[in-house]
Amino acid sequence: MTTALPANALVSPDATIVVQLPVTGMTCAACQATVQRALARAPGVADATVNLMTATATVRYDAARATPTALVGVIRAAGYGAELPDASRTAFQAQAQQDAAATHEFTTLRRDAALALTAGAAMMGAMGLAPHAHGAVWWQLVVTTVVLATAGRRFFVRAGAGLRHGTADMSTLVALGTGAAFAFSLVATLQPALFTSRGLAPAVYYEAVVFILGFVSAGQALEARAKRQTADAIRALIHLRPTMARVVRNLAELEVAIDEVVPGDVVSVKPGERIPVDGVVLRGASAVDESMLTGESLPVSKGVGDAVYGGTLNGTGAFRLKATTLGADSALARIVQLMRDAQGSRAPIQHLADRVAARFVPTVVGLALLTFVTWWMLTGSPVRALTSAVAVLIIACPCAMGLAVPTAVMVATGRGAQLGILWKGGEALQRASEVTTVVLDKTGTVTEGRPVVTDVVMADGIAPDAPNLWTSVRALEERSEHPTAAAIAAEAARRGAPLIEVEGFRAVPGRGVTGTVEGRAVHVGTAAFLTAEGLDPTALVAAAERLGVSGRSTAYVAVAGAVVAVIGVADPLRPTSVAAIAALQRAGLDVVLLSGDAPAVAQAVAREAGIARVVAGVLPEGKVAEVQRLQGAGRVVAMVGDGINDAPALAQADVGLAIGSGADVATSAADVVLMRSDLDGAVAAFALARRTMRTMRQNLFWAFAYNVVGIPIAAGVLAPWTGWQLTPSLASAAMALSSVSVVTNALRLRTARLS
């Protein structure tokens, strides 16, 4: 079977297809486990991840054996709703639709909760005023029936669908509990003689049914509102996207909708405005606040040729840009999509909750039946037995288990985005929390990635700004393609040297350049190059050695046959590197510097940065081998690099962190993209991962502990000693509280201190 790939599908490295399907009708961990189990068993499915928080199923499948349409059918056959994703929707539109659905869910649940709780309060009030009034029981029956048909309808509909498909979930427990209480009360109302003839009071539990539905709905409403808060970071990003752009067409500026801008359009940006689209500055200059992308609060200077990104905030300058990537390809859209994908993923720690949830509801139903039989046998009272059995059904909701991990992942990915850290999923979060060794690429990671002149030593009797010296140097180095030459040429330009012509220019790759400038022979290069050219650089050997020992690249300058200067060039440390590396070491992480540079240069950088272990002079395959060696020694290794030259090592590491930018954020192969160009993002990433895992463990502990403690109490194990019985109404309130507490605990990550 072959089929065209869906437009939004991704091809995995193993040639399988990954597609994300919206799922409806899931209310708890048991629902999630049911859908996931059904998809995992489907032909052609290699892996399936179902997320209760985002209501999505991410499926990796063999296109020759399965199709998205068939996968939708599998989900529907399991008793839940599903549909094919709309490939034409952008990440902004998909999030807007999800937000609208969440708002509708919250509004509906709040209405149902208000109805049921108001009805319950009215019933309790009426009973308090006239407990024996004629017709009071019939009035309660009418009110309860109305509440069941409105606020309780969704529980019975979902439970019925599950029954037809052989599944059970939270709705099953609520429907069984309230249904049993209502049926018992209905029999007591219609046929009280069945009870009185046996010496039993025809007790009714109408108010318990109403309060259970009210408390459960109220808890779900609070849960829905809290769950919506976990996506605040995504919504904050989306709200930064302007809706209009000022486009220059036919020499006039026109206000057009953002979706009407096309690549190549010239867009005018005024001071204080948000930049509407990604582009390249054509004219003008300004400083742009890119904190929404990078987490860096300091504005970034922008001039002609610089890239700017839609949603960032322009400063006091005005400029025009040429639109480049738009719509779903824009930096902001790709970041939003990356966050949505991460929030729809699953951390490995979730597997434990999934396994328990898959067997949870049938186990609880069995425990409720056992409770009913036990208390009936001990007391001879079906009323007493029913109260305990219903309390067990109601309190044992698996919602908290299903929310424990996904909520933490969602909040952590949102918090990370605020700090310029983009996670590729929950698995990366969990692995990052377990890292023991951090391998840092040198160039562009620990250092600035661009060499600059750091030292200039002149021969005796020659002034550093000797006439024509820097002019001669610039004339040659501007024509060389070597990075060191570019740094020297930039220094000469900074000193005001003009660019003049060179006669007889000649370059020896990797060694030096020579030519005639203003009638004088000029040489710039290594000592070996000058020696080969018949010049004697020994007069500056001592100075050159001093520069070499400190890790500088050196270039000798000879003018008219005399060696007059030696210039030291180095790639300086980033301003934040020393403090960031110290923070990693304080966190208990071993730090290794990895570089393709000469050992002397790498050792100098390591000493300056405070790193003890250095592996230098290695090619990309050597970097991979070092990561493998560390892994073989039992280390959990994170690699931090630029995401391009270090791609093999990033892929080999247990966690790859790429220092990226808004333009290439979605193309990086790493597990984590650090939008900032320094190591502070890595420090925050590891701290956030550890804090998130602590939150996940807390949530899972309380979710399991709640049921381990709550179910026996609901079953009445304390009653023989305390005489206290947990009523079904109190059980429903406790059940609602468990889910809300798990989500609330996860929300604390939004303001967690990571230092």
Structure description:
- The longest helix is centred in the first third of the chain and has 39 residues, at 91-129.
- Strand 3 and strand 4 (56-61) form a beta hairpin.
- The strands form 5 sheets. Strands 15-27-26-25-16-23-24 form a 7-stranded mixed β-sheet, with helices on both faces. It has a 6-stranded antiparallel β-sheet with strand order 7-6-8-14-9-12, with no helix packed on it. The chain has a 6-stranded antiparallel β-sheet with strand order 17-22-21-20-19-18.
- The chain has 755 residues and is of the alpha+beta class.
- Helix 5 crosses helix 6 (170-190).
- The radius of gyration is 34 Å and the shape is elongated.
- Mean pLDDT is 83; it is low at 1-7.
- The chain is built from 27 helices and 27 strands.
Strand order of the largest sheet: 15-27-26-25-16-23-24
The residue ranges in which pLDDT falls below 50 over 5 or more consecutive positions are 1-7
Tell me the radius of gyration: 34 Å
Largest sheet: 7 strands, mixed
What sort of overall outline do the alpha carbons produce when their principal axes are compared?
A: elongated
Strand content: 15-25%
- Average pLDDT rating: 83
Count of individual helical segments: 27
Q: How many strand segments?
A: 27
Distance between the termini: 54 Å
Q: What structural class do the secondary elements suggest?
A: alpha+beta
As a percent range, the share of helical residues equals 40-55%
